[in-house]
Structure formats: structure tokens, C-alpha cells
Amino acid sequence: MSSTLDEEEDEIKLAIAMSLQQSSPAARHDAFASNEITGAEDEDEDIRRAIALSLQETQPVDGLTDSAQASSLISKDSAPPIDASKHSTQPPSKILQAKDSANTTEPLGSVGLDRKAMEQERLARLSKRKRDASPERPSKRNGRTPPTQTPASTSTITHSSVAVESQYPRGAIKRTFATGYPRTNDITIDELLQASSIHIAVISSFMWDADWLLKKLDPRKVKQIWIMNAKDKDVQLRWVREMEATGVPNLKVHFPPMDGMTISMHSKFMLLFGKEKLRFVVPTANMTQIDWGEVANDWQPGVMENSVFLIDLPRRKDGEAQDRNKSTKFGQELIHFLEQQKVDQKVVEGVSKFDFSQTDHLAGGSWKHESDHPTGLPGLTQAIRELQLDNIKEAELDYAASSLGAINDTLLQRLYLAACGESFTTNTESSNMRNHVRIYFPTNETVERSIGGPNCGGIISLTKQHYYASTFPKECLRDYDSTRRGMLSHNKLLFVRGRKRCGKSFAWVYIGSANMSESAWGGQRVLKNGKMGSLNIKNWECGVVMQVPDHKVAAVELLDGNIPPMSVFEAGGKMLEENQGVCRTNADDSDVSEGSGGSRVHAPTTGDKND
């Protein structure tokens, strides 16, 4: 594996690929010739609008009782591979000071917790993937200025022990806040954390800005566990020692198992424990200022957008931990995931003291070729079966991603099958799915004219090697140009819509950390002996599948063959006023219907040595 990574090292330096590279007119035409690749412009405009991020202002409606709406949690995604053998062992240079000097014995080294330090730690492999949070003034770049808005407070939270009512008992998908843009049902990091009402926060992220986060969550008042990314044991131990040496109270760092082929802890989630509720969060954003739409300069608008799923779970009335076998699928899978990540047992017990009863609608199911807790694409397969979204005659897939791997027809087919609730087996016949899958990724022109420009697009990546491979499905690409004009997207969103064999139409969306790659979803092939090789997933990932309610699907005008249009995911206008159950992109929030919160979360798996 290491030799393969070494061969790709030079290409990783071109991580911005189509987005950031200056290319010849011929190359650009080859990459995104709009007429040849996108097909009908009207359809693309409909799709862009549906996955766009600045629809009209709307308000969520409470009281929806459509039990058909469901969600399922899945773990996966693709972050840039990290070769631990080449991981820098030098401590980052940036120094952060603890908030309470009386409790601080040493300065707090960022130990890879902020963007720049993380990039220094990975410099040998990632080179120019650094993302700059302070670009040139937009007026000097392209004059593209977003609409003004009433500023949202991004100041440090004043903590106090205050109980906060559950806002999202059934779950919601919301867009992240962006400085300088209208507040269209988005959510700020402060509104999400509710720091004044929580006493414990368990946060998992691929990248960190420790200084920024400690201003949001005072460690003197909120006990914190940060689940971080580092494969090398020596690096992990050094970070733990440095954190302990700072004397910052109530703050621990944790590293999940990174054995075998597992090379990246890319999952993103939060467990925010309050007096009366547990808020569980799955964002596409890292714990960095730029990912949550905040900026360091008063003149600078937000440059990066993300999405977030959140659900508020009430504390059990008896105050006791529930037997996992009596919990819902959501609760069982979440606890399994935490145990696989070797999170403190007290955290697991704490989660068990909250009520998952509103997620008990999920159907049971299993994938015979894996364990009871399949991961990656087999995990998606099982989740779709449990949601009773399988038995599909035809489906259309639209994938908005911030990083693309070595995509080929095999991966497209495996993704399509999983989205239909079907397994990839030795008897699976090869099939061309390029006409049924669209992948949204910004062109070089889109990045150039964005507010942040190329300097703020470093985390949005596609290598030149992957793009120019003969097997790469270029015709599946679509330009990801947000309707929240000028912003780049860090979303990972998979929209699936289609028709079942019984003739019933359906639609659902995945939100999480998984980009479009085998590192995220897992590689699996037929071996020379005719048997299926083991699933090889290189990353820890996490995500949620949410169904669009049946009556919402019935409310839209169906396309030929009873395929719902992309507008089925929109939450704007009259339909949202009548129904809060829409699951959409980062465009605005969509409260989920009753019983939303089924889960499937999984760890990465190692590959078959014979594969």
C-alpha cells in the first residue's frame, strides 16, 4: 500500500485539480464542456437549485406526524490519505494560551488542532492543500459581493447552567451560517453548541482550530473530549503528553484505532450533553472557523459552506442507562460506533441514559456477507433495506462532494446498487451507470470567481492523475456553483430518487463525511479464485440517511417513468409551509418527521490480503 501512496504523492500536490489548476482552453473544455457533459440545461438548473445553498427564507413547521420519514446513520468518507511513516514528528509551532492563567501551567500547543498546524503535520504528503482563512478583499479579486445581512453574533459564549428546550426532537438538516449572507434558516456554531446549556462535549473532527473552539466552549465549564486524526502511535502519544502538560482543565484528546489499512479518522460528529437532552450532530464541517462561516476580518464575507444534521434526544425519565438490546436501531448503532472508536465507557453509558424512542420506526435487516454491523457501501445497503427503501426498479443519483477519488465504473455501479439496497456479489453483471449518476464538483472558473478564490479552495480536491485516467467518468461531472453566490462548498450530500418495482416513487438524501471515493465507501473486488474479496475501507466516517416523506414525493410533478425531480428535496415555498419533512442540501433547514433518527455508524475495515 505504501508504494502506491508514494506513487501518488506528486499528484496529491495537485489536490485542487480542476478547481485550482490553470489549464489550457482545451483542457478546460475536456474537463467541463457544458453541452457535452451536462446535457439538458434546464435539468441542470433544476438540480443546481435543489442542491444549492441560498433558497428563499422559510420557517420550519412543527407537528408533522408522517411516520414514513426516516433516517439512518452510516460511517464513511474520503479524506486525503495520510502515510504515517512520513507523518511529521515535529510539534507544530503555533502556541495557544489557556483561558484561565491560574489553571495553566504551560502554553497550549496546537498539537495539530488548527488548520495550519494540521497542514504542517501532513506537509510531506499533502504539500499545498493548506486552506487560507484570510483571502484578499473580494473587491480586489472579482467584485463579487454577497448580499448584506444583519450580523449574527459570533462572540465568545458566556456559560451558565441553563436547561434548553429540545428544538429538534425529530431531527433536522440545516445549512451552516455564512458571514455577509442573509440568514435563511441556517445555524451558527454558537446556536448549534448551545454552550450555556451543556456540561460535556464529545467532538470528532478531521481538522481543528483549537484556539477558535476553546473560545466557543470554555473547558473550565464544559468537559471536552476531542476525537482526532493521527495514525502514528508516537504522534498520538506526543499530542496527549503535550495536551496534559498545558494544564488546560477538563480537556482530553482521543484517537480511535488506526490499525492495518486504516489511514484517516475523517468522521465528524458531536455529542453535546445537557441537563435534559443530548444533542447529536453530524456535520460536513471540520472544527475550523472557515468551515462554520465565520471570518477573521470585519470586511470579509464567509467563503465556505457546509451542512449539518442534528437531533435532540430527551433524557430518560428513570435516569437509568437502557439495555442496548432494548434500544432502537439508532441507539444500538451509535453505541456500537462509539465502542469501536474506543471512546470512554462513561460516554457510552451517558448516551444510554437518553431516550431514542422516536427512532424506533426502522425496519430490521442484515447483509449476509458482513457482520451484524456492516460498514461502507454494505452499510448503506443495509440502511436502505431497514428503511424499506429497497426493491428499486430505477434510480437517479446526484452526489455533491468536496473531494473526488479514483472513480470508475465499478465504484459507480457499487454505489448505485447500495443506493437501491442491493449487494455487490460475484454474480453481479457489469453495467454502465454513467447515465444515472451525476457528481457535483466546482470547475476552475467557479473557484477563481469565488469570494475566497483559490486560496480558500485547498480542501476541495481532485488529483490530475485521477481526472485524466481513462476510467474516470468525466461525463458524470457537473459544475458545483452554489446559488449562495461566491461561496465554495465543503458538503458531502448524496441525493437519490426513483421508482420502486411496485410503481411507488421515493426520494432520500445522505449527509455526512463521505466523499466520492473508495477510501470512504470501501473497495471490494472479485478475486482470481472467483470469491469476493474483503471490504477495504481506509477511513473512519459517519453519515445520516433521511427519507423524504411519501406525501412530499406525491406533491411534486413526476418525470417520465415516475421519477421525482430534484425539486422534491427543496424546502422552500408553500410545500415547506405545509410540511417540515423535506431533506435537502445546505440550502436551508428541514425538520424531520416523527420518528426520525434511525442510525447506522461504522468503523473502517481492512482489506483482503489476497485481493
Task: Briefly summarize what is shown.
The protein is α/β, with parallel strands linked by helices and 611 residues long. It has 19 helices and 22 strands. Helix 10 links the parallel strand 7 and strand 8.
Descriptive overview:
- The protein folds into 2 domains: 307 residues, no CATH class; 266 residues, Endonuclease Chain A (Endonuclease, Chain A, 2-Layer Sandwich), CATH 3.30.870.
- It is 23% helix and 16% strand.
- Strands 4, 5, 6, 7, 8, 10, 11, 13 and 22 form a 9-stranded mixed β-sheet that branches.
- Strand 14, helix 14 and strand 15 form a beta-alpha-beta unit.
- The protein starts with a helix and ends in a 20-residue tail after the last strand.
Uncertain residue segments: 1-43, 52-70, 75-119, 125-143, 153-161, 361-370, 572-611
Oligomer: single chain
**Total number of helical segments?**
19
The helicity comes to: 10-25%
Largest sheet composition: 9 strands, mixed
Q: Specify Rg, calculated over alpha carbons.
A: 22 Å
Q: In terms of structural class, how would the helical and strand content be classed?
A: alpha/beta
InterPro entries: PLipase_D/transphosphatidylase, Tdp1, UIM_dom
GO molecular function: 3'-tyrosyl-DNA phosphodiesterase activity; double-stranded DNA binding; single-stranded DNA binding
Pfam families: Tyr-DNA_phospho, UIM
Protein name: PLD phosphodiesterase domain-containing protein
